[in-house]
Amino acid sequence: MRALLALFSIALAHAQTNPLWHEQKTKNYLPHMTWPEVQHLLTRSDMVIIPVASIEEHGPQLPLGTDFLAATERAKLIAQKTDVLVAPILLPGISPYHTEFPGTITLSSETVERVYFEAAQSLIRQGFRRILLLNGHAGNQYATRFIADRINQETAGTAIDLGEAAAPLQTRTTRTRTGPVTFDRHAGTGETSDGLYLFPNLTDLSKAGKNDVTLPDHLARMLPLVEAGDPTATRIFLAEALKPKDTGKHTSTREMTATGVWSNRDTRESSADRGREDTESFVNGAVQFIERWKTLEPVKAAR
């Protein structure tokens, strides 16, 4: 009888829990941890990865949280291979040129910089002295560098851009390129492939397809040079493209593409295999960098 009552109690408790909750606890992921677990991690590591994210349109096939999810999931994969805290801070980022599409939320660069800097200060005071900023959205790149510089100039911590640090250590792709190079950036085959690997149940390839990009005449003339890898043309092109509508540059996302996909490729060409290869290359490069830094400066738990 007691056994039956115990089973009934367990079943009743299970039936009363949130039916939507399916998340599994992930090692070193701050939102899942208790404070004693964080305290114990500090005896092994003083490093923290902070994803710098955004919530913005990513075409009809990818979720609005693509940049947050991609950066955070990659950070979590890194933390399974080397002890480092993963601490997401903000969901939105700097995305004013996407706001003509419903769901995009954008913040000023001043707000983003202040929030991440103050969050880093909290972690530094607790003993996380090495800050690895993992930018998941190109529109945040200058803010990310500014945050890193403020941390380095104004606190006891040391901050680096993890994407830049890992790049020289990443393995080259084994994919064979066929046909001409085609313009493929925001929400294109690269990001869609990442989504298919990192968060497959949120990536809907049935809604992917061919996208037509319309550019101002001078940028359209520059595009072949960008596709050919011309560094000067690419720098100028990206400085002028993807800018808010009120700048008058005619390069907000809605002005250039009806779908929100800034790519001339068919996103149905995306694959989870490509996403896996790109992710593993980055994760392995990041782990190599972190391990090397740990060798150069071993953690001092009491510092």
| Structural class category | mainly alpha
The total count of strands amounts to: 4
Q: What is the terminal-to-terminal distance?
A: 56 Å
**General form:** globular
Uncertain spans, ≥5 residues at pLDDT below 50? none
Order of helices and strands: HHEHEHEHEHHHHHH
Strand order of the largest sheet: 2-1-3-4
Helix proportion: 40-55%
Q: Topology, please?
A:
Elements (H helix, E strand, L loop, with lengths): L1 H14 L19 H7 L5 E6 L13 H14 L5 E2 L22 H18 L3 E6 L5 H14 L3 E4 H5 L22 H10 L18 H11 L3 H10 L12 H4 L15 H25 L7
Parallel strand pairs: 1-2, 1-3, 3-4
Brief descriptors of the model:
about 300 residues, Rossmann fold
Describe the protein in words.
With 303 residues, the chain is mainly alpha-helical. The protein has a domain at 27-170 and 279-294: Creatininase (Rossmann fold, 3-Layer(aba) Sandwich), CATH 3.40.50. The protein is built from eleven helices and four strands; from the N terminus they run ααβαβαβαβαααααα. The chain has a four-stranded parallel β-sheet. Helix 3 (66-79) crosses helix 7 (189-198) and helix 7 packs across helix 11. The model has no long low-confidence stretch (mean pLDDT 94).
